[in-house]
Design goal:
GO terms for molecular function: DNA binding; DNA-binding transcription factor activity. This protein has 314 residues and is α+β, with helices and mostly antiparallel strands. The protein is 41% helix and 24% strand.
């Protein structure tokens, strides 16, 4: 006879494999009496599994729908399928679930037996996704960084031919790239790192106590770091349209939107050329004003003059 804990896991696996189970058949599969099955079902209910009693001549049980998601048991094939699906989602094939998929993948790969790791790696190497142009990131790197963030474990890695020692906090995904938000120990400040620029795999370091997040909040800090800080010029634009309307014409990596009132919003962006900023803002097709820098207005006038000249009928 199986020990109680092992028997409960076996019972749960059977209940997940098909909809209805007669009590006598469950008892036969487990090598116990129907009375023991009833006691084990009660134990599963105490653990939060919604096991329902099925009516009928033979009676039985089924795993119902609960208010919360209890732990699930996966066989080998199911575990491989979930890992492959999570890897695909983590690389951006399904918009909006990349970071969630990465967290789930880190948990799953931590407990995968080596034989299943080999199967997942073999299947992944045979899959050829047709993605758009742009830098790519190894899912193994994403998994390692996600695990370090979750465990509050410091890491060292090569970045543009330098070694960086950081405390990793968050992985950030945009429509084109992955970034790591971390506290740089050598610079004693927060930094964002492009994952595709890491030239050496991360090495584990000591565990750390999480620091307070940046004063302006993680979202604002990262948005500023990606859209303004790296550039020579910074601009603030007043759009005469609600924020949700302007958001349809831009992206988080192009600039940071700030609510002003019901009919307008502010747009903070950066660029290496004022001409490029002028063209980018003008192409939105929304009325706007330049608040800063003043010299951007001259570039917009020059752009308007060129466009007017090009549209004249000779």
């Amino acid at each position: 006879m199986l020990e109680t804990s092992a028997r409960l896991l076996r019972l749960l696996s059977l209940l997940q494999s098909r909809r209805d189970w007669p009590g006598a058949e469950l008892a036969e599969r487990l090598g116990v009496t129907t009375r023991t099955v009833r006691r084990d079902v009660d134990r599963l209910r105490d653990l939060g599994y919604p096991v329902e009693s099925a009516t009928g001549t033979t009676g039985g049980y089924r795993l119902g729908v609960g208010a919360a998601l209890p732990p699930l048991l996966l066989d080998d094939d199911e575990a491989v399928a979930v890992a492959i699906g999570l890897r695909a989602a983590a690389t951006g094939t399904v918009t909006g679930i990349e970071e969630t998929s990465l967290r789930a993948l880190a948990k799953l790969e931590q407990v995968l037996p080596s034989r299943l790791r080999h199967r997942v790696g073999a299947m992944q190497s045979a899959i050829l996704p047709l993605t758009g142009p742009g830098p790519t990131v190894d899912p193994d790197l994403l998994t390692a960084l996600a695990a370090a963030c979750r465990a509050h474990e410091g890491i060292r890695f090569g970045y543009q031919q330098r070694t960086r020692r950081v405390e990793p906090y968050r992985l950030i995904h945009t429509s084109r790239r992955w970034y790591l938000l971390a506290f740089d120990l050598d610079r004693d400040d927060w930094r964002t790192f492009r994952l595709d620029r890491m030239d050496r795999a991360p090495q584990p370091g000591p565990r750390f106590t999480p620091r307070p997040e940046p004063a302006e909040g993680v979202r604002t800090y990262v948005s500023n770091a990606l859209t303004a800080s790296p550039y020579r010029y910074r601009a603030t634009i007043l759009f005469h349209a609600p924020l949700d309307i302007v958001a349809e014409h831009t992206s988080p990596t192009a600039g940071r939107l700030e609510h002003r009132d019901a009919d307008s919003c502010l747009f903070h962006a950066g660029g290496d050329s004022l001409d490029k900023i002028a063209l980018f803002v003008a192409l939105k097709g929304i009325d706007f004003e330049v608040l800063d820098p003043p010299e951007l207005k001259h570039h917009i006038r020059a752009l308007a003059h060129r466009l007017t000249h090009a549209s004249r009928d000779d």
